[in-house]
């Protein structure tokens, strides 16, 4: 009977790991949502035409955040300054860079109320996708438990007990997702 405990422990560990990964993915998606505050990942999608090819911004310049609403892009090669400035302007991020020698200052405009609402909806959509992913992990776990019971690895009582544990894991993961959304919405709505 000790084999069933080990089987469930490895199943539980796998389910917990998959749920935690889902929460991490959600946090990465949230990091890409602009909140009116400057952060270096804001310029990650910018691609610069440099040296005859398209390169990510981080391969031709360094991005820093000297103030909450300002990014400074330090271009390594002075001759690339105009190309980097153009790439930031044309990236569709709603930013208006200003070159000063080898540095480019990128002020982050405050978000409009309409844009804040839009971002909140996007955050909610990401959150719902994470909840669905967590529920799918729970379903996989419940299916595994049914199979273990059917194969005689665990008893009906153990199945019930383990099902409760899987549900608790799910509830904790969804609570974490909801707290993450609440925090992000506060960040978005902060003026």
Automatic annotation (TrEMBL):
CDD domains the UniProt entry points to: RRF
Gene Ontology cellular component terms for the protein in this record: cytosol
Domain Ribosome recycling factor: 26-189
Keyword Transmembrane included in the entry's annotation: no
Keyword entries, A-Z: Cytoplasm, Protein biosynthesis
One Pfam family from the record: RRF
UniProt keyword Repressor, yes or no: no
One Gene Ontology term of the molecular function aspect: ribosomal large subunit binding
Signal peptide as annotated in the record: none
Example GO biological process: cytoplasmic translational termination
InterPro entries the record matches: Ribosome_recyc_fac, Ribosome_recyc_fac_dom, RRF_sf
Primary location recorded for the protein, binned into one broad class: cytoplasm
Localization annotation: Cytoplasm
Superkingdom: Bacteria
Function of the molecule: Responsible for the release of ribosomes from messenger RNA at the termination of protein biosynthesis. May increase the efficiency of translation by recycling ribosomes from one round of translation to another.
Stated family: Belongs to the RRF family.
Protein name, UniProt field: Ribosome-recycling factor
Protein species of origin: Caenispirillum bisanense
Lineage, uppermost ranks: Bacteria, Pseudomonadati, Pseudomonadota, Alphaproteobacteria, Rhodospirillales
């Amino acid at each position: 009977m000790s084999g069933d405990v080990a089987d469930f422990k490895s199943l539980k560990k796998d389910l917990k790991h998959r749920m935690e990964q889902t929460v991490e993915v959600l946090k990465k998606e949230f990091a890409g949502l602009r909140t009116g505050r400057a952060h270096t990942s804001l310029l990650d999608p910018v691609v610069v035409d440099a040296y005859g090819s398209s390169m990510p911004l981080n391969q031709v310049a360094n991005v820093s955040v000297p103030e909450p609403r300002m990014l400074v892009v330090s271009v390594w090669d002075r001759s690339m300054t105009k190309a980097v400035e153009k790439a930031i302007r044309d990236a569709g991020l709603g930013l208006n860079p200003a070159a000063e020698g080898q540095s480019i200052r990128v002020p982050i405009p405050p978000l409009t109320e309409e844009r804040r609402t839009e971002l909140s909806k996007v955050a909610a959509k990401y959150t719902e996708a994470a909840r669905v992913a967590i529920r799918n992990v729970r379903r996989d776990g419940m299916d595994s438990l049914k199979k273990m019971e059917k194969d005689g690895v665990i008893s009906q009582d153990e199945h019930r007990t383990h099902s409760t544990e899987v549900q608790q894991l799910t509830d904790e993961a969804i609570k974490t997702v909801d707290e993450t959304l609440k925090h992000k919405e506060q960040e978005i709505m902060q003026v």
